[in-house]
Design goal:
CATH superfamily: Spore Coat Polysaccharide Biosynthesis Protein SpsA, Chain A
Structural class: alpha/beta
CATH topology: Spore Coat Polysaccharide Biosynthesis Protein SpsA, Chain A
Helix content: 25-40%
CATH class: Alpha Beta
Distance between the termini: 38 Å
Strand content: 15-25%
Number of domains: 1
Largest sheet: 8 strands, mixed
Radius of gyration: 16 Å
Length: 198
């Protein structure tokens, strides 16, 4: 069982509209991301919503995912991680954690999963380019309870990853692992990078 968590609860203040609903080649960005995860070999996709959750939920009516709501999304991303981790199947072998504003194609995610599942004693697998770490990250299913206990005080996902630094594997990547859509300019650049710009 390969699981995944898409964190999509944020208020998208700098974008001005929900990032999950950005047009991505004729469909909402989040729907494209869900499809990419499944094509990469993920068995279950957990989507954590918060800000304007009703609007985003409507766009997911036909998507193959399970939707969880984080009513306390203003309190920080760690709460969304806890909500998502709690929904993950207990027998998950690996969990892909991705933010909704970090689109990655199926082949990219599949390469990370292959590296993770093919390694012995690795708890975390992440892409890296020029010494910098990117996203998404793949964590061992055994870390589910640690993610369920994460808090902003313990630095959320970063705290979990730091605790397992000795058992972390980096996978060589390119600039794709650093794409992060926070502003309209970031969005336009990402569309161009994916060949979707009009």
């Amino acid at each position: 069982m390969i699981s995944s968590i898409i964190l999509a609860a944020g208020s998208s203040d700098r974008m001005g509209s929900p990032k999950a609903l950005l047009d991505w080649g004729g469909e909402p960005l989040i729907c494209w991301e869900i499809r990419q995860l499944h094509e990469a070999g993920v068995d279950e996709v957990i989507v954590v919503l918060g800000h304007r959750s009703d609007d985003v939920r409507r766009s997911l009516a036909r998507a193959d995912c399970r939707v969880m709501n984080n009513p306390h999304f203003h309190s920080g991303r760690a709460e969304s991680l806890r909500v998502g981790a709690k929904a993950v199947q207990r027998d998950a072998e690996a969990i892909v954690v991705v933010n909704v504003d970090q689109p990655r194609p199926a082949a990219f995610i599949r390469a990370l999963l292959d590296a993770h599942l093919g390694a012995n004693g690795v708890h975390v697998t992440r892409p890296a380019v020029a010494g910098r770490h990117g996203h998404p990250v793949v964590v061992a299913g055994a870390l589910r309870e640690e993610m369920m206990a994460a808090s902003d005080a313990t630095r959320g996902l970063r705290g979990v990853l730091a605790a397992h630094a000795p058992m972390t594997a980096d996978v060589a990547s390119d600039d794709l692992c650093e794409i992060d859509i926070n502003t309209p300019d970031d969005y336009r650049a990402a569309l161009h990078r994916f060949g979707l710009a009009v």
